Amino acid sequence: MEGEDKPMLGRRVVVYGGGNTAIDVARSVKRMGAEPIIVYRRTRDKAPAHDFEIEEALQEGVMVKWLSTIKQAGMGDDNRQITIEKMALDDKGFPQPTGEFETLEADSVVLALGQDVDLGLLNGVPGLEVTKDGVVKVGADLMTGHPGIFAGGDMVPAERNVTVAVGHGKKAARNIDAWLRGETYAPPPKHEVAQFEKLNPWYYADAPKTVRPMLDIIRRQSTFEEVQGGLDESNALFEARRCLSCGNCFECDNCYGVCPDNAVIKLGPGKRFQFNYDYCKGCGMCVAECPCGAIKMEAEEI
Ligand SMILES: Cc1cc2nc3c(=O)[nH]c(=O)nc-3n(C[C@H](O)[C@H](O)[C@H](O)COP(=O)(O)OP(=O)(O)OC[C@H]3O[C@@H](n4cnc5c(N)ncnc54)[C@H](O)[C@@H]3O)c2cc1C
């Protein structure tokens, strides 16, 4: 599309909405060589899109009409005019019509007002329940009302983002595995969170976070190249090492090294350590030297 005189949607494209879909559409339109203008009925701080996405869109030249709503489209001799009404926030912060109108030119209007899940594949499945929001009801184990059918991600009641969908995938896999064995999955108990006082921060290198590369604004406006680069393997591993791992043993071997009584037994990579209480005198060296507060001293029961 780059450099063509007549982009598919025309020159002036109005995008109606304030979520990440609206922002994505407007930024794509810009890259296709047209002029996008977002019309959104609330203020920037109330827009569901991430603020950084809005900022990047503005940097790329996307225009936004905040507190505005489309009243009418396809007007004028050439059907290219749309009327927008300005909104004002009421006492409760909700946008209300003001009766003040403005005309914009538009070759296309894209409505980016929400997403629906296509549940067509589940039609007629007995026991399956669909909520009034058009998503599938699931239990805590992510199983639907039909035994053996599990669901997650956008099609269940939850936040709609990649992180949640990936998490549901992992959780569903564990529950499916247990269900196929005729068992119920029980997550392992979580250990206590180690507060900062239990950590030994001296153990960790003082390293600033890695900065991810950003594509130049000019190149962002005309190509679909990745805007913010990811981390390469070594940077990602470095970032992971900045984690203080509060309360989670990461097998640094400090306890093993400092124990004067050889009471700490290494169980092998990923298996952490065991304590041989027949040898342990309870000196507490391992607790004092554990960087992440993963070891707790408990009074011996007599
Ligand atoms: C424009 C837009 C921008 C977004 N931006 C972000 C963002 O920046 N960050 C973020 O975290 N999230 C973002 N999201 C949301 C994110 O994409 C979703 O929350 C996430 O992809 C949900 O994952 P999912 O696996 O549930 O569904 P999907 O990723 O939609 O996967 C469902 C898959 O099932 C397939 N499928 C559907 N029906 C059938 C069938 N009958 N048979 C076989 N296969 C079928 C579909 O083709 C699809 O591949 C965005 C969404 C949109 C629409």
Task: Record keyword descriptors for this entry.
302 residues; alpha/beta; FAD/NAD(P)-binding domain; four-stranded parallel β-sheet; three-stranded antiparallel β-sheet; 7 helices; 9 strands; 22% helix; elongated; binds flavin-adenine dinucleotide
In short:
The protein is α/β, with parallel strands linked by helices and 302 residues long. 22% of the residues lie in helices and 17% in strands.
Order of helices and strands: EHEHEEEEEHHHHEEH
How would the global form be characterised? elongated
CATH evolutionary superfamily of one domain: FAD/NAD(P)-binding domain
Which CATH class of one domain applies here?
Alpha Beta
Question: In what range is the share of β-strand residues?
Answer: 15-25%
Helix share of residues? 10-25%
Q: Indicate the low-confidence ranges by residue numbers.
A: none
Strand order of the largest sheet: 3-2-1-7
How many helices in DSSP terms? 7
Question: What class would the helix/strand composition place it in?
Answer: alpha/beta
Provide the CATH architecture of one domain: 3-Layer(bba) Sandwich
Which small compounds were modeled alongside the protein?
flavin-adenine dinucleotide
In terms of quaternary structure, what is this?
single chain
Rg to the nearest angstrom? 28 Å
Mean pLDDT rating: 93
How far the N terminus sits from the C terminus, by CA atoms, comes to 79 Å
